[in-house]
C-alpha cells in the first residue's frame, strides 16, 4: 500500500481487517459453553450485567456469591450495568434476574460478542494508535503502520477476549493510554487513566510499582519546588479518582462496611496459591521440587508472605532503576546557561524543562513494565494462566519497534509465541484449537518471524529452536497419545515445564536490558557519559542551543541523562522500543542498525562534525 500511494488507507484497512479477524474468532467456542451448572467466564460476565441492572448497588458484591459473585472492581460493574441496560432494551429475557442463568441463545451470544468488540474499538484500538504516534514518533510512517498491525493482531489477547471471552482489552487499553500520556508529559491525565485501569480489573496492579516509581521519579527529577507541586497534584488526582470510582460504596451513600466487602471480593486471598496448571514459579516448582499446598497446609499465611517477598524482589530492579535514574539526573550540577533555562518560566523556548516534559528515564518504562508484570506473574499469589497477557503487552510494545535480527525482536517474538502456547490447555478446553493455530501462524507471518527456522548462532536463537521443537512435539504427542488415568494432567504439566523457563529468562532479559539502556543513557555511576559530562558541561550547554535551533534535540540516537537542557525524549522513546537494540542475533559481525547510522550522520552534519551523536 505504501508503494502504491495508499498510505492513508493503511490504518483504517488494518483496523477493519482486525475487526473481521476478531469477529471470526468469536464464531468458535467460549469459556463454559454448554457446561452447566456454573458454565464459565462468558456466563460470569453475562450474570454481572444481570445483577447490576436489577439490584441496588450496595448488593452487587454480596448477592448469591456461590454463583459467579461479582469480584472485579467497580468500573467493571458500571460497564456491566451499561451493557445490561442496552441488552435488556433489545431483549429483556437475556438478563432476567435468576431465570436467565445459563442462557446461550444465538441472539444473546451475538450481543455479548458485540460488547467485547465495541469496547475494544473504543478503548484499546485508539490506545494502540496513540502509542505508535507518540512512542514511535521519530520513526517512518511505514514503521508506525507495521507496529500497529503487529499490535492489532496480537494473538494472545485476541484469543482470550474474542475467543475465551473476557474484557482484558479495556484494562490493557486504559493502561496503555496512561503510558501514552506519560510519553507526552501529561502525567495527571496518565494517572487518571491508570486509576481507571485499576478500577476496571485489579490485575492492573501488576504495573502499579513501576507506574508509581516513574511518577515519583519525575517528582525527584523536577527538584524540591516543582517536584513537590507535581507530587501534591498527583496525590490529589489519584485519591479523587478512587473516591469517584468507589463513591456508591462510601458514606453517605452506603455504610463503610460496604467498602470492606467490595475490597474482600476484589482480593480473594482465600482461593489458594495458584489455579489449574499455570506456567509460573509456584506451579513449576510444585511439580519438580516441592508440593507447596501439602507442606504448608493450614499455613497459607506463610505462603502469602513468601509470595509477596519474591514478587517484590522480582520487580525491585525495575523500580530502583527508575528512581536511581531520576536521582542521578536531578543531582547533577548543570552549567550556568542550562540552569538559567531550567529555572526560567515556561516559554516556547524552555518548555522542554517544564513539568509537562517526560523525564529522561522514560525509555526505561517499557522494560520496567515488563520486569514488574513478569515478576507478578511468576511469583505472586492467585495467578491465572490468562494473566500472562499483562507481561505480554509491554513485550509486544517493545517488539513492535524492533526489526528482525535484533535481540529485542528475537526475545519479543519468542516470549509472545510461548505466551500463547502456555494458554493452550485453556483454549483447548474452550474448543479454540483452530483459532489458536491460525492466529499463531498469521501473527508470525505478519511480523516476519518463522517459528520453524533453525537459529543456532546465538543463545536466544538456540533457545527459540529448542522451545519451538518442544512445542511441536508436545502437540503431536497430545494428538496421538491418551494420558494415563493416573496422570490426567500430563500434557498441561509438560506445557508448564516448557513455558515457565522461557518466562523466567524473559524476566531476566528485561532486567538486563533495563541496565543496558540505563548505561547507554548515562544513568549508571561510572558510565562514560557521566565522565564525559564532567569535562564538557559548558560545551554541552552551548551545543544544546545549537541543536535546538536546528531542530535536532529530539533525534539524538544515544542521549545522556546527564546532558543539561537536552531531553531528547522522542528519540529515546524510539530507542527503548528497539531503535538500537545494541546487539544483532542473526550472527553477522559488526552489525549496527542502519537507522541509527543515518541519524548519527544527520547529527554530525547539523553540528558541523563536532559531535557524532
Automatic annotation (TrEMBL):
<dbReference type="Pfam" id="PF03155">
    <property type="entry name" value="Alg6_Alg8"/>
</dbReference>
<keyword id="KW-0812">Transmembrane</keyword>
<feature type="transmembrane region" description="Helical">
    <location>
        <begin position="302"/>
        <end position="324"/>
    </location>
</feature>
<feature type="transmembrane region" description="Helical">
    <location>
        <begin position="459"/>
        <end position="481"/>
    </location>
</feature>
<comment type="pathway">
    <text>Protein modification; protein glycosylation.</text>
</comment>
<protein>
    <recommendedName>
        <fullName>Alpha-1,3-glucosyltransferase</fullName>
        <ecNumber>2.4.1.-</ecNumber>
    </recommendedName>
</protein>
<feature type="transmembrane region" description="Helical">
    <location>
        <begin position="110"/>
        <end position="131"/>
    </location>
</feature>
<keyword id="KW-1133">Transmembrane helix</keyword>
<dbReference type="GO" id="GO:0042281">
    <property type="term" value="F:dolichyl pyrophosphate Man9GlcNAc2 alpha-1,3-glucosyltransferase activity"/>
</dbReference>
<keyword id="KW-0328">Glycosyltransferase</keyword>
<feature type="transmembrane region" description="Helical">
    <location>
        <begin position="230"/>
        <end position="250"/>
    </location>
</feature>
<keyword id="KW-0472">Membrane</keyword>
<feature type="transmembrane region" description="Helical">
    <location>
        <begin position="364"/>
        <end position="381"/>
    </location>
</feature>
<comment type="similarity">
    <text>Belongs to the ALG6/ALG8 glucosyltransferase family.</text>
</comment>
<keyword id="KW-0256">Endoplasmic reticulum</keyword>
<feature type="region of interest" description="Disordered">
    <location>
        <begin position="334"/>
        <end position="357"/>
    </location>
</feature>
<feature type="transmembrane region" description="Helical">
    <location>
        <begin position="143"/>
        <end position="162"/>
    </location>
</feature>
<dbReference type="InterPro" id="IPR004856">
    <property type="entry name" value="Glyco_trans_ALG6/ALG8"/>
</dbReference>
<keyword id="KW-0808">Transferase</keyword>
<dbReference type="GO" id="GO:0005789">
    <property type="term" value="C:endoplasmic reticulum membrane"/>
</dbReference>
<feature type="transmembrane region" description="Helical">
    <location>
        <begin position="174"/>
        <end position="198"/>
    </location>
</feature>
<feature type="region of interest" description="Disordered">
    <location>
        <begin position="528"/>
        <end position="613"/>
    </location>
</feature>
<feature type="transmembrane region" description="Helical">
    <location>
        <begin position="434"/>
        <end position="452"/>
    </location>
</feature>
<feature type="compositionally biased region" description="Basic and acidic residues">
    <location>
        <begin position="529"/>
        <end position="549"/>
    </location>
</feature>
<feature type="transmembrane region" description="Helical">
    <location>
        <begin position="493"/>
        <end position="511"/>
    </location>
</feature>
<feature type="transmembrane region" description="Helical">
    <location>
        <begin position="388"/>
        <end position="414"/>
    </location>
</feature>
<feature type="compositionally biased region" description="Basic and acidic residues">
    <location>
        <begin position="590"/>
        <end position="603"/>
    </location>
</feature>
<feature type="transmembrane region" description="Helical">
    <location>
        <begin position="204"/>
        <end position="223"/>
    </location>
</feature>
Amino acid at each position: 500500500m505504501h508503494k502504491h500511494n495508499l498510505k492513508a488507507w493503511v490504518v483504517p484497512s488494518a483496523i477493519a481487517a482486525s475487526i473481521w479477524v476478531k469477529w471470526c474468532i468469536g464464531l468458535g467456542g467460549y469459556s463454559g459453553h454448554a457446561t452447566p451448572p456454573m458454565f464459565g467466564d462468558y456466563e460470569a460476565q453475562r450474570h454481572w450485567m444481570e445483577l447490576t441492572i436489577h439490584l441496588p448497588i450496595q448488593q452487587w458484591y454480596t448477592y448469591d456469591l456461590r454463583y459467579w459473585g461479582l469480584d472485579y472492581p467497580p468500573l467493571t460493574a458500571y460497564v456491566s450495568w451499561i451493557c445490561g441496560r442496552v441488552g435488556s432494551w433489545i431483549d429483556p429475557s437475556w438478563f432476567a434476574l435468576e431465570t436467565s442463568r445459563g442462557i446461550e441463545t444465538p441472539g444473546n451470544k451475538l450481543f455479548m460478542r458485540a460488547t467485547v468488540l465495541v469496547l475494544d474499538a473504543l478503548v484499546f484500538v485508539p490506545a494502540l494508535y496513540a502509542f505508535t504516534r507518540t512512542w514511535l514518533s521519530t520513526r517512518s510512517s511505514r514503521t508506525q503502520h507495521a507496529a500497529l498491525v503487529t499490535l492489532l493482531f496480537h494473538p494472545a489477547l485476541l484469543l482470550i477476549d474474542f475467543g475465551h471471552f473476557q474484557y482484558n482489552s479495556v484494562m490493557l487499553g486504559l493502561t496503555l493510554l496512561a503510558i501514552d500520556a506519560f510519553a507526552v508529559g501529561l502525567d495527571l491525565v496518565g494517572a487518571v487513566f491508570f486509576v481507571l485501569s485499576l478500577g476496571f480489573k485489579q490485575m492492573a496492579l501488576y504495573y502499579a510499582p513501576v507506574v508509581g516509581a516513574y511518577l515519583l521519579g519525575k517528582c525527584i527529577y523536577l527538584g524540591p519546588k516543582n517536584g513537590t507541586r507535581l507530587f501534591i497534584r498527583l496525590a490529589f488526582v489519584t485519591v479523587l479518582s478512587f473516591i469517584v470510582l468507589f463513591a456508591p460504596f462510601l458514606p453517605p451513600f452506603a455504610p463503610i462496611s460496604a467498602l470492606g466487602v467490595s475490597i474482600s471480593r476484589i482480593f480473594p486471598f482465600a482461593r489458594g496459591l495458584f489455579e489449574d496448571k499455570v506456567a509460573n514459579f509456584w506451579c513449576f516448582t510444585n511439580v519438580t521440587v516441592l508440593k507447596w499446598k501439602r507442606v504448608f497446609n493450614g499455613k497459607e499465611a506463610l505462603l502469602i508472605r513468601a509470595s509477596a517477598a519474591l514478587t517484590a524482589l522480582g520487580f525491585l530492579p525495575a523500580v530502583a532503576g527508575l528512581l536511581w535514574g531520576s536521582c542521578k539526573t536531578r543531582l547533577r550540577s548543570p552549567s550556568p546557561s542550562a540552569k538559567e533555562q531550567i529555572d526560567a518560566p515556561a516559554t516556547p523556548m524552555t518548555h522542554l524543562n517544564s513539568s509537562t516534559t517526560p523525564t529522561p528515564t522514560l525509555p526505561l518504562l517499557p522494560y520496567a513494565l515488563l520486569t514488574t508484570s513478569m515478576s507478578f506473574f511468576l511469583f505472586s499469589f492467585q495467578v491465572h494462566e490468562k494473566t500472562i497477557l499483562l507481561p505480554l503487552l509491554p513485550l509486544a510494545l517493545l517488539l513492535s519497534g524492533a526489526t528482525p535480527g535484533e535481540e529485542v525482536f528475537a526475545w519479543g517474538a519468542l516470549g509472545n509465541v510461548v505466551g500463547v502456547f502456555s494458554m493452550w490447555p485453556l483454549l483447548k478446553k474452550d474448543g479454540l484449537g483452530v483459532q489458536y493455530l491460525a492466529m499463531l501462524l498469521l501473527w508470525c507471518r505478519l511480523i516476519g518471524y518463522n517459528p520453524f527456522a533453525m537459529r543456532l548462532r546465538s543463545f536466544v536463537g538456540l533457545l527459540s529452536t529448542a522451545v519451538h521443537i518442544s512445542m511441536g512435539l508436545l502437540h503431536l504427542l497430545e494428538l496421538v497419545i491418551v494420558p494415563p488415568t493416573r496422570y490426567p494432567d500430563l500434557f498441561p504439566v509438560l506445557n508448564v515445564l516448557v513455558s515457565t523457563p522461557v518466562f523466567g529468562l524473559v524476566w531476566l532479559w528485561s532486567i538486563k536490558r533495563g541496565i543496558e539502556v540505563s548505561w547507554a543513557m548515562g544513568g549508571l555511576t561510572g558510565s562514560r557519559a557521566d565522565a564525559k559530562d564532567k569535562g564538557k558541561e559548558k560545551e554541552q550547554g552551548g551545543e544544546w542551543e545549537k541543536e535546538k535551533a536546528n531542530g535536532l534535540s529530539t533525534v539524538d540516537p544515544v542521549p545522556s541523562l546527564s546532558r543539561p537542557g537536552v531531553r531528547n525524549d522522542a528519540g529515546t522513546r524510539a530507542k527503548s522500543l528497539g531503535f538500537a537494540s545494541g546487539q544483532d542475533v542473526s550472527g553477522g559481525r559488526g552489525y549496527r542498525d542502519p537507522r541509527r547510522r543515518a541519524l548519527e550522520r544527520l547529527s554530525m552534519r547539523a553540528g558541523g562534525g563536532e559531535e557524532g551523536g
